[in-house]
Amino acid sequence: MAAKFDRKWRLFLLVLGFCLQILAGKDFYAILGVTRNASKKEIKKAYRKLAMKWHPDKHPDDEKAHEMFHDLSTAYEALSDDEKRKIYDAHGEEGLKKMAGENGHDPFDSFNSFFGGFNFHFGGSDHSHRRDTPKGADIVMDLDVTLEELYTGEFIEVMRYKPESETIPGTRKCNCRQEMRTTQLGPGRFQMAQEEVCDECPAVKYVNKMKKLEVEIEPGMIDGQECSRFVGEGEPHIDGDPGDLKFIIKEQRHPRFYRDGMTLYTNVTVSLVDALNGFEMDIQHLDGHKVRVTREKITWPGATIKKKEQGMPSYDNNNLFGDLFITFDVDFPRGTLDDEEKEAVTKLLKQKSSQTVYNGL
């Protein structure tokens, strides 16, 4: 009897959980393929990858892809915002809908913050049209990036004021071109001349609008590398498409590490006591993990050790790492030793007095 009751109770709980899941709405974490404790960076990375995969331009006739793209944008909008994420975690999708009211969300807004929003194409039949359409100038901007961000990867938010056109009353000349016109001067006499011909287009004005862009810094990127291109976020063109906005990495000087490709270098100064007796220490790496350094033999000024795979990650394969080279200097005590101390040092070191002059460059 008890076993039968237990089975019924488990079945009831299973059905109840299923019903609650339906009432709560869609599982945004599952849609993005992340865990419930995923960081904001992991959420952004997952959305960026999946949004490219399911963009409607790649699947123009696939309703499932369009629905998936919409769900991805809805999930990202909720989970990338701390306040909305708290509400979703507590009350599900229905709780978010009650908070938002009737305000809808354009699924392309999130996508545009990562890639730009004007005429974004994945290929197709309108390439020839794009070649014929005038385009505004591209904008190239340096982006200050820390060595920590280049080691772990990061998303950097950039606020940009972009001039956008708005229609105003009136018209303007547009699409002007040179055409040949023929005029009859008399019987059998004609004159041909070039003439500028223009269309009539609505008048426009430019208004600066603020946009948030998400620039992805991938692990292993280097100074001077183009890290992101935002389509249509460059200079506008009154009769065509705006140019693109490109971000170029400008690596910031680091107080502890110097980088050369995948190799990292750092310097450590130790006391004379540690140099003679040996020591153990930890060096905090760029992502916070500790690199253990143990020296049992004497450390001299300029001594260098190599820590394998403790350098920068490879941009092409983030599972590969360069090496870390640690060069030591010795902090000698200041002052003067008395005769007794000098004799004790000489006996201890068992080293003869020696001076050598040479070119050290």
Automatic annotation (TrEMBL):
Organism of derivation: Paramuricea clavata
PROSITE patterns recorded: DNAJ_1 (PS00636), DNAJ_2 (PS50076)
* GO cellular component, as recorded: endoplasmic reticulum
Keyword annotations of the record: Signal
InterPro entries (UniProt xref): DnaJ-B11-like (IPR051736), DnaJ_C (IPR002939), DnaJ_domain (IPR001623), DnaJ_domain_CS (IPR018253), HSP40/DnaJ_pept-bd (IPR008971), J_dom_sf (IPR036869)
The molecular function GO annotations come to: misfolded protein binding; unfolded protein binding
Gene Ontology process terms (BP): protein folding
Q: Which domain of life is it from?
A: Eukaryota
The name on file for this protein is DnaJ homolog subfamily B member 11-like
